[in-house]
Amino acid sequence: MAAEREPPPLGDGKPTDFEELEDGEDLFTSTVSTLESSPSSPEPAGLAEDISTNSNGPKPAEVVLDDDREDLFAEATEEVSLDSPEREPILSSEPSPAVTPVTPTTLIAPRIESKSLSAPVIFDRSREEIEEEANGDVFDIEIGVSDPEKVGDGMNAYMAYRVTTKTSLSMFSKSEFSVKRRFSDFLGLHSKLASKYLHVGYIVPPAPEKSIVGMTKVKVGKEDSSSTEFVEKRRAALERYLQRTVKHPTLLQDPDLRQFLESSELPRAVNTQALSGAGILRMVNKAADAVNKMTIKMNESDAWFEEKQQQFENLDQQLRKLHASVEALVCHRKELSANTAAFAKSAAMLGNSEDHTALSRALSQLAEVEEKIDQLHQEQAFADFYMFSELLSDYIRLIAAVKGVFDHRMKCWQKWEDAQITLLKKRETEAKMMVANKPDKIQQAKNEIREEIEEWEAKVQQGERDFEQISKTIRKEVGRFEKERVKDFKTVIIKYLESLVQTQQQLIKYWEAFLPEAKAIA
Amino acid sequence: MIFGFQTEFFQIELEEGLDDGPDFLSEEDRGLKAINVDLQSDAALQVDISDALSERDKVKFTVHTKSSLPNFKQNEFSVVRQHEEFIWLHDSFIENEDYAGYIIPPAPPRPDFDASREKLQKLGEGEGSMTKEEFTKMKQELEAEYLAIFKKTVAMHEVFLCRVAAHPILRKDLNFHVFLEYNQDLSVRGKNKKEKLEDFFKNMVKSADGVIVSGVKDVDDFFEHERTFLLEYHNRVKDASAKSDRMTRSHKSAADDYNRIGSSLYALGTQDSTDICKFFLKVSELFDKTRKIEARVSADEDLKLSDLLKYYLRESQAAKDLLYRRSRSLVDYENANKALDKARAKNKDVLQAETSQQLCCQKFEKISESAKQELIDFKTRRVAAFRKNLVELAELELKHAKGNLQLLQNCLAVLNGDT
């Protein structure tokens, strides 16, 4: 812990740096209350966590990026919890240069540039923003998925994607590297992470869904727009998936994840194929789980869990409804674009046949305007889909993962219950044996039962500990998830609205250009 | 104007301008009249539709006339007419030989509320499955749609009458005066099956004839040019009108989606426990407002573009009909000439042939003369109408886009400031 530095407690921070954070400060207090630092780490006063969840974070101008600071963290307007195993990454939706990560362990050390500690963009969801910041900023970790390439031919063909990682974390050997991965590799990664972390209560982000139809088209080599669309959709989904996964502090530490990101050769994950042995086993397990869920009657001692489950149920329903509406919008917008294009052609024809010169010209101009507007509609439909619709479908699947975690807790409880029941039975057996007095046989049996009882006592204790652990983990995870969700939605929706703004501005330009043409008809 | 509706499900009395829902129609009356820009309503004869009532199956129009002409008993009077009576009037013009040389103003299309009624019915049936506010929202929307269609049909009937009233010859027509003045039912029934069948055959014969007649090359350059032009123009306007229709409808569907998205966001906002609920509520509000603007864009496009094209589709057909009649009379004239030559050669029935030939000649010349003027006027009207509507379309699109932009920017400012 030698590298650990005491971060300036909330109240003592440089006042100037905190100016922007007035809104965020409410966030501080709420995060302080929901997060409990694990007993092993010291409790710094004024602990505060994720801040600046939006674009109104500390502006670059506030940061003094020069050598005048005495303290590494002079610009730190955000502080980090010092939970040792889990380091919550500082997240900002937009480059917030004033943030430096506090690294309590040697795991993560801020990379100091030659001159100044320019503030890192810790985690950015959008690649464009990352590219903007690319000069001289220190990243924590940033993932991109790009360059889909078809490898092979026929039914054995597959798409290979380039996974690029840029990071300042010292656990990676390089600061920037890329590898080639195929879709089943991603699925393999997810299944490994899920098998390790789901049952102890971590919300593991779900991988994108398989699509037999989509992939078959690509394999068969159809170079049409629907297969390029499919590939683009998948690429974006894979990128979001990885970004979410590395955002999770625990998962980030996982060696499988590191191997996925770093190593040039990865053993093929055959278990992810739907019709493989493992695939069928998965399906059977899923069915069994569903049945079990119906039969487990848990005595919920903690109202928090019941409440949260209900909330997630509601949220799930609402999101599905919203998603359906947004999908309809995407569909209609595409239709609108097609119809506008058709009209543009028709108007051009009409303009050609019109024998009044000025009117003919105006009609041709109208046709051009409509053609441009058609382009606009297409782009807007694109934005509708990739920003809004995909966000919603991602969250619908994430909530399914959250529900899964709650189910695991129930199973854990069941296990504990079962252990307790078994222990009780064993004790009863022992008691019965004590009463029945057959000295010769008994001693051996008594020893056996004694052993069993001790064994089950241990199991009960373990069960209780597990249950408490999973409950605690879930609470923390849910807290983190909710924060993420809020930030995600806000960021994406604001971006989406900005896309709408763009469209309107373009429309204004086009119609303003047309108006004089129309007026010129004499 | 006060419009009364009575549908199966809703009894609505809507005053123009009262709706605080999407105001589809403020430009509407100007819009359709603008399709015929040169309709000078002079003091001699002014016609308009002052009221309308929609009952289950029919629409009753109150036709109001103001006139200083001596032909009428009073200076100002009103009658109630139904759609069939308009058609009767139109057909009487078509069948009148004297008017062969004029472009007969196209008949107004039949009022068609079927689609709207269906939607209202579906809404009524689905009432149980949606929340109260959704239901109210959709009901308002459908009512506004119904009102829009209603106003449109009123305007189209009105335009027909105004065109007749503005035409120097047609306005003097006796049937027209009867139509305007006779304050009882004209006992015009819709055509029965037999008559409709007759019409159908008549049309077939006419189009076959039209093909034959159009084969005759015209000596007159002007008419030859007009013929080629109109043929092509008519087809293209038809196509453009259909495509424009589809475009406006897609636009409306997208606007409707905004409505549903707004509702869902609202639900999310009211149910969410985190601080994002304010955010959702604001965005939901934005979607509601932006939807109103999008709906108006769609409605304005419908009026300025689709309706314009549809109207000129009908008018160009009427112009084509005029050309057909002229060509027909030309053929008749040429046939009469041939007959005369034959008669002179045989020296039989010469006088008869001469008279017949003279009649044909007069008819042809009369038609040609007025047709020329009519076609020139048609062009002037058309150019003026397109100009007016395209300018208004562009202005409205700009207005709405700016409004939308402001809405979005305000909302973003609030959201960015808040969060």
UniProtKB/TrEMBL annotation, chain A:
Q: Where is this region: Disordered?
A: 1-63, 77-103
Quote the biased-composition stretches of kind Low complexity, using this chain's numbering: 27-44, 92-103
SMART domains xref list: PX
Give any single GO term for biological process.
early endosome to Golgi transport
The reply on keyword tRNA processing is no
Q: Does this entry carry the keyword Protein transport? A: yes
From which residue to which does any coiled coil extend? 442-473
Which UniProt keyword terms apply here?
Answer: Acetylation, Cell projection, Coiled coil, Endosome, Lipid-binding, Membrane, Phosphoprotein, Protein transport, Transport
Topology class, membrane = Peripheral membrane protein
Q: Which GO terms describe its molecular function?
A: phosphatidylinositol binding
Which positions fall inside the PX domain? 139-268
* Recorded GO CC terms: cytosol; early endosome membrane; endosome; endosome membrane; lamellipodium; retromer complex
| Pfam families reported in the protein's UniProt record | PX, Sorting_nexin, Vps5
What is the similarity comment for this entry? Belongs to the sorting nexin family.
Designated name of the protein: Sorting nexin-2
Corresponding gene?
Answer: SNX2
Automatic annotation (TrEMBL), chain B:
Q: Which InterPro entries match?
A: AH/BAR_dom_sf, BAR_SNX6, PX_dom, PX_dom_sf, PX_SNX6, SNX5/SNX6/SNX32, Vps5_C
Q: Which UniProt keywords apply?
A: Protein transport, Transport
Q: Which domain of life is it from?
A: Eukaryota
Mention one GO biological process in which this protein takes part, according to its record.
intracellular protein transport
Q: What are the GO cellular component annotations?
A: endosome
MF terms in GO: phosphatidylinositol binding
Domain (PX) spans 39-186
Write out the similarity annotation.
Belongs to the sorting nexin family.
The record's function comment reads: Involved in several stages of intracellular trafficking.
Name the chain's protein: Sorting nexin
